[in-house]
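Q: Can someone sanity-check these two? First one:
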Amino acid sequence: MSFATDLAEYSAPEIIAAIGCPRGTAYDWLQGRREPPEWQQPHWLALIRRSIKKKSNKALDGTPRKRSRKTES
């Protein structure tokens, strides 16, 4: 499979949140305008998968989200 094919299952916001890349980079990768060097592609895909898997596990584990406390001035 190609990098673009593997990446197509994710959205640009997911990619940006997972690896902290610039917005333009995520959209360029998804639209096939450019790719990271071939030797880096497995690394980026693994980071994205791992990050998204962690987020989905947290959403499914049933623990309530922490709410931030607003301080009154």
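And here is the second, same format, sequence then tokens:
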Amino acid sequence: MNLFFGEHPSKWNIALSLLTGLILAGVAVMLQEPLGWNGIVTAVLAADIGAGLISNASKETNDAWKNESRSRQWVFVIFHLTVYPAAIILLSQSAVVTILLVGLLVVKTGLFYSRVISTAR
């Protein structure tokens, strides 16, 4: 759980992360008509992207990830820039949702890179 919110996250950070994830998932659901299983999976990915966007901006999460190996940090980046976009592109039922989620995914991963990988230990 430390890699999601850090070792001692504030209640505000947890609440804001979860709320952002739920809002983004709700937007994804509303924009995918008719909603099928692939739209639901896209909404789950949206929730993770929304929550991760806020979480990756927090000092607590960044500090937890800085204690991980360089290879694990790079696996996070590579996974989020290959598997996630591919899943979104293949599963999303809406071009707007696809563009929104891939864009936010790039921001989320960029935050991680700039605040964890590019900083010296």
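A (reply): Looked at the second one. The chain has six helices and no strands. Residues 23 and 47 are 8 Å apart (CA to CA).
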